[in-house]
Amino acid sequence: MKYKLNLITLALLAPASFMATAGGYGLAEANTENVKFDKWVCKGCTVETGTTGSIGVGVGYNSEEDIKSANAFKSDNEFAGKLDADINYKGDKGYRASIEATDLGMDNGRADINVGKQGTYNINLNYRSIATYKSNDALTPYQGIGGNDLTLPDNWVTAGSSSQMPMLYSSLNPFELSLHRERAGLGFEYQTESLFTTFVNYQREEKSGIKQASGSFFNQSMMLAEPVDYTTDTLEAGIKLKGDNWFTSLNYNGSSFKNGNSQLSYDNAFNPTFGAQTRGYMSLDPDNEAHTVSLMGQFNDSVTAVSGRLMVGKMSQDQDFVTSGYGYQLPADSLDASVDLTGMNLKAVTRINRELRLNGSYDYSDRKNNTQVEEWTQISINETNGQVAYNTPYDHTSHRVKVGADYRINYGMKLDAGYEFKRDERSYQDREVTDDTNLWARFRVNSFEKWDMWVKGSFSHRDGSDYEASEWTSKEQNQLLRKYYLADRDRSQIEARVSYTPIDELTVDFGARYALDDYKNTEIGLTESEDTSYDANLSYMFNADVMFNAFYNHQVIKSAQSGSSNFATATWQADIEDNIDVMGAGLSYNNLMDSRLRLGLDYTYSDSDSTTQVRQGITGDYGDYFAKIHNVNLYAQYQATEKMGLRLDYKIEKYLDNDAANDIAPDAIWNVVGFGSNSHDYTAHMIMLSMSYKL
Amino acid sequence: MKTKMTTFPLLSALFSLVLFMGITSPAHAAKWDEKMSPAEVEATLDTKFAEGKYSPKGADSCLMCHKRSEKVMDLFKGVHGAIDSSKSPMAGLQCEACHGPQGSHNRGGREPMIAFGPDSSLPADKQNSVCMSCHLDDKRMSWNTSHHDNADVACASCHNIHAAKDSVLDKQTEMEVCTSCHTKQKTDMNKRSSHPMKWNQMTCSDCHNPHGSLADADLVKPSVNETCYECHAEKRGPKLWEHAPVTENCVSCHNPHGSVNDGMLKTRAPQLCQQCHASDGHASNAYLGNTGMGSSVGDNAFTGGRSCLNCHSQVHGSNHPSGKLLQR
User: Which residues are the signal sequence here (chain A) (predicted)?
Assistant: First the structure.
């Protein structure tokens, strides 16, 4: 709404000289009594059949050895190739097909193929990949990386501390910490002429790679390369029915997760301590299944809309327990765990008149963990022997009610406000019930020429039933501890945005946000957290061909917590401050060289920095913990012939991060065998040349 | 946009961003906006819609004047201009299905028609009522009161149906479009750790439905955890030893948009863990880090390396019979 009004005109207009109705222009409401459809032959409607689109290939070169650069460059290979396609086929009688592919062959490739007849059926084939790279120089003395049995070299000599292990440094080998996902899917949808649609979508995702884990014996620990070999199958199917003002659907969603490894075994690098254990066994994520059925519906007549969903679901897991190295009686071979999920949502919104709209909703969700509570003997890791523990299958129920209203004062001013109440009920936890109430309001003005602004404020309060250190959680907890997700809390937030367009070519906008969480009844635990941020953005069009934009975002997050080292009132405090700066600029120049050439430059810099201070009589800090990243992309696109286009991209990533707690040698901590420093410091370059051809 | 944009993501991202902010060219206010106030336009359109004076020959009547516009004719490249589908507007009231009854607009074009997009003087909810009357389905059933509806975003502010392809649907430009308003998330995704959104490997719509949903934050699944399990099914369990805040809500500990800490954690270990664990023993101690008096943050297992996770590695729950302390 860019209509330009001044305040006087607005004031004059406000008494409704023209009464607009609350309803909209829905097709079902259209008054078509007098339409002579037999004359509506649409001679001028020209739909061209045939194949259109473009296809492209590209090749890139990246010389950087630090594999982390592959996140930005989308390939860990020195040379990378890619295929792009955007092809559309239109036939007679509504037959259509399309192929879309982006960066196929690179780490983040996607492809989507659709074939079908419009309004009748569609077959879809899709593919997608994602890769994330952490490091290619993590160090480990273990052999068998990638597998589920990690062993130390035959000549390994254990010791009481990592720095005394004689074979450690000669046994270290670098390996890659990275994860790759590949996802492929097949979908089918069928629609009838009238009300009915049905669909089924199947998808398989494979995730592979290595992630970091730790295995420990008593107080000694080794970092381990945990193999990732996951397969997740998802099936969705449903039927939908639709009328003029209503819609309903019944859906099934099933997901099955399989882990190629059920356990990870590893040698003890240290001298055996309690229990004389020389081998450790870790249970890896178990195979599991989840199924949900939901019924949804909506009625909408442009004045009132009511929608709702009923959902029932089940999550289950019955993987055999890891028994290697566990010498006790088990109550069962597997857990046979199951959780029932129930959900209900109901929402209504109605327009009382042109100015006022009311809305309300109720949401219910319930997680019931039906898993049997049994007695489980714990392996002794210290002087205490053969302790027995009971599992605590958590139940959680929540109810939430929302009511709200929005009032349009006039064409350029709107006020909306709402109230929310949420109750959470939990089992086996320190606090069984928490209640959250939240009030918010927002005012928006866009009636002034060149200005658009809004301000929003909210206040929420959480309290609940008595806070008790439950016997189920841990009877040894400090009585003054209030876990932050259960604790009493007052949360205040205010946010404002202003957008200013002094001339058509220039837009400047500015936003600021402040939030304060006050855990006012907490003595031990998180006591306060404060989040302040602001951002500024500018876009300027020098002329029809040259565009410039720039942005700067700044955020500070501060939090404070207290602890007690004598198990009574607070004896120490920790203050954490995160400072974030993100800025960037982009410039593009189009239509150079007789409209054949485009040039562009994009630059982004981000600096995330965190400091931690802990005070107990004396003050200590956690040293450097930052990431500073520069990214540059310079590109030129040249239309060589009518059909053929060329593009050259030059990308730079200058990356520097540090974490003093991890910038250490594998034996820096006496009771840990680590992966070595995980910091990065590189300047990586990539050149990519691509060519596209118009069909 | 004369040239295909899809193969050149950055440029087209920038271009759509500028389009999105509505500054590509002077506002395309319609002819009638010069003489009529928005209230008059809306009241006139209400009356026209109720009267239902549709044109004598449908699209052919409109094209008598509008066929010279490339933009108008581009409709026939997309699905809304399909002439052989019973579900296309062209099978029904044609142009007037969306733009409303012609009335006497054909006499000089001064009488308002329903116009779409950020520059239309017609309030967004009235524009959208046209689109929503056909697009009534499970993906859009919560549009009313959704985040974007409340913010008066018109469907046509993001979508363009007079085109072979709707550019907002391009995954390569999605992040730019969303973060042009959602600046806090733009900061987050540039932090030390985040989901891989900075390079478009993941996009906002992987987790959020821009048209609203019945869940918090317009998530695509009924709850936060079920949304996370879509890709992190290994954390679904149910495992023998659950970690209560993990089972309840992944965002108890993580900020999925990004964080200055590794692993998108809201706070680093050991402080994060010590916000909930204060038993008599090592969990209650103050870990001072670098004191300048001989101790440093990297010299002990409580603050160095993986901190608490050096031993309690299975923070997302353990299925080992002896896993109560989330160690194996």
Answer: 1-22
Q: Phi first, then psi: what are they for A130, rounded to 5°?
A: -140, 135
- Residue showing tokens 């929540």: A398
CA-based end-to-end distance of chain A: 39
CA atoms in the 13 A half-sphere facing the CB of B263:
16
B65 touches chain A (CB under 8 A): no
CA atoms within 13 A on the CB side of A632: 9
Low-confidence ranges of chain B (pLDDT < 50): 1-27
ipTM: 0.93
**Positions of E strands within B161-299:** none
State the Cα–Cα distance between residues A79 and A61, nearest whole angstrom.
5
In this predicted model, what pLDDT tens digit does every residue of A242-274 receive, in sequence order? Answer: 988 899 999 999 999 999 999 999 999 999 987
Which residue in the block uniquely carries the two structure tokens 């409209």? A595
CA end-to-end span of chain B, whole Å? Answer: 58
What would the two tokens of residue A203 be? 């998808």
Integer CA distances (angstroms), A467 to A256, A408, A421, A463, in order: 38, 44, 20, 10
Q: Model confidence over B247-277: pLDDT tens digits?
A: 999 999 999 999 999 999 999 999 999 999 9
Q: Which two tokens stand for residue B167?
A: 């550019």
Question: Would the pLDDT of A472 be above 60?
Answer: no
Rounded to an integer, what distance in angstroms lies between the CA atom of residue B273 and that of residue B286?
Answer: 12
Confidence of residue A470 (pLDDT cuts 50, 70, 90): low
Mean pLDDT, to the nearest integer, of A121-137? 96
Q: Which residues of B touch A316 (CB under 8 A)?
A: 238
Angle at which helices B9-20 and B171-179 cross, to 10°: 40
The Cα-based distances of B171 to B103, B203, B226 in angstroms read: 40, 7, 23
In angstroms, the separation between the Cα of residue A615 and the nearest Cα of chain B is: 7
Instruction: List the single residue in B with minimal CA-CA distance to A49.
Output: B77
- Asked if the peptide bond before residue B238 counts as cis, ω within 30 degrees of 0, the response is yes
Asked if the bond preceding B270 is cis, omega within 30° of 0, the reply is: yes
Cross-chain Cβ contact A553/B186 below 8 Å: yes
Asked if residues A112 and A124 have their Cβ atoms less than 8 Å apart, the reply is yes
- A452: amino acid identity, one letter: D
Tokens for A666?
A: 């594998």
Q: What is the pTM of this model?
A: 0.92
Q: How far is B324 from chain A (nearest CA, A)?
A: 7
Specify the DSSP element, H or E, that contains A240.
strand A220-242
Tokens 């046994």 correspond to what residue? Answer: A171
For the beta carbon of residue A32, count every other beta carbon within 10 angstroms. 14
Average confidence (pLDDT) over A354-372: 96
Structural contact between residues A582 and B187, judged by C-beta atoms closer than 8 angstroms: yes
CA distances from A564 to A454, B276, B278 (A): 44, 12, 8
Rounded Cα gap, residues B74 and B94, in angstroms: 14
Which strand (E) or helix (H) includes residue A126? strand A121-140
* Residue the block writes with tokens 């990308």: A651
Interface test with A, best of B31, B67, B120, B145 (most A CBs within 10 A): B145
Residues 6+ apart with CB under 8 A from A503: none
Q: Tell me the pLDDT band of A1, cut-offs 50, 70 and 90.
A: very low
Contact A285 B235 (CB under 8 A): yes
Taking a C-beta distance cutoff of 8 angstroms, is the pair A633, A601 a contact? Answer: yes
Q: Nearest CA of chain B to the CA of A439: how many Å?
A: 16
Strand A644-659 and strand A625-639: the pairing is: antiparallel
pLDDT of residue B251: 97
A474-532 pLDDT per residue, tens = 557 899 999 999 999 999 999 999 999 999 899 999 999 999 999 999 999 999 999 99
Which of A288, A541, A619 is nearest residue B236 as measured by Cβ atoms? A288
